[in-house]
């Protein structure tokens, strides 16, 4: 029943490691996003894909690499994790139609802690 | 450039009081959309409302109401007869019609409803 799901929900890892977060949506949407929420609760867009094509890349370090194997999935891989990467990462999806700006529906978030 | 300001960092009221959360935005686009999301203590982001720049009608949904005023670039949110379950962080967000659709969020207002 879950519309936008993310795994894992919690991720604790050491500095320097590489990790991935997975996102899947079953809403039939064409567009998916990654947002980062920092410790002060500030939310900022990182990436967006429309039908497997990258359309937003918001000056994120290239240690972060999104991958969309199909339009229902958008994964986030992070290399060489740093302390500052600790945050909650939210995946979202929207219909991606041409009529106006769509509502984005968010997953439950993945809390990443880098030690 | 897009910007959203939620000047109230924290608000605390007693149950059954009415409370208004302020949101002021900046955009150069003539067509844009405004949103409110709720983030309860459990952490997920819950969509509340989407409003386009051509529709200045106020909206009411149960105890929630929204006042959109283009003249002051504001999109304020009022909860009437607040309840403890309304305690959450509330985010206002803006998305321009031009370019890729990304949500630009305000800093959030932490609302605490005390019994």
What does this structure look like?
The complex is a heterodimer of chains A (115) and B (115). Chain A is an all-beta fold and 115 residues long. Chain A is built from no helices and 11 strands. In chain A, strands 2, 4, 5, 6, 9, 10 and 11 form a 7-stranded mixed β-sheet that branches. The termini of chain A are far apart. With 115 residues, chain B is mostly beta strands. In chain B, 0% of the residues lie in helices and 53% in strands. Chains A and B meet through strand 4, strand 5, strand 9 and strand 10 of A and strand 5, strand 6, strand 10 and strand 11 of B.
Radius of gyration of chain A: 14 Å
Indicate the multimeric state: heterodimer
Weakly predicted, low-confidence segments of chain A = none
CA-atom Rg of chain B in angstroms = 14 Å
What is the end-to-end distance of chain B?
41 Å
Proportion of helical residues of chain A: under 10%
Q: Please state the average pLDDT score of chain A.
A: 92
Structural class per helix/strand content of chain A?
mainly beta
Mean pLDDT of chain B equals: 95
Top keywords for this entry?
heterodimer, A: 115 residues, mainly beta, seven-stranded mixed beta sheet, four-stranded antiparallel beta sheet, 0% helix, globular, B: 115 residues, 12 strands
Could you outline the blueprint of secondary structure elements for this entry?
The complex is a heterodimer of chains A (115) and B (115).
Chain A: E1 4-7, E2 10-13, E3 19-25, E4 31-37, E5 43-50, E6 53-57, E7 64-70, E8 73-78, E9 87-94, E10 105-106, E11 110-114
Chain B: E1 3-5, E2 10-14, E3 19-21, E4 24-26, E5 32-39, E6 46-52, E7 59-61, E8 64-69, E9 74-79, E10 88-96, E11 104-105, E12 109-114
Parallel strand pairs in B: 2-12
Antiparallel strand pairs in B: 1-4, 3-9, 5-6, 5-10, 7-8, 8-9, 10-11, 10-12
Give the gist of this structure.
With 115 residues, chain A is mainly β.
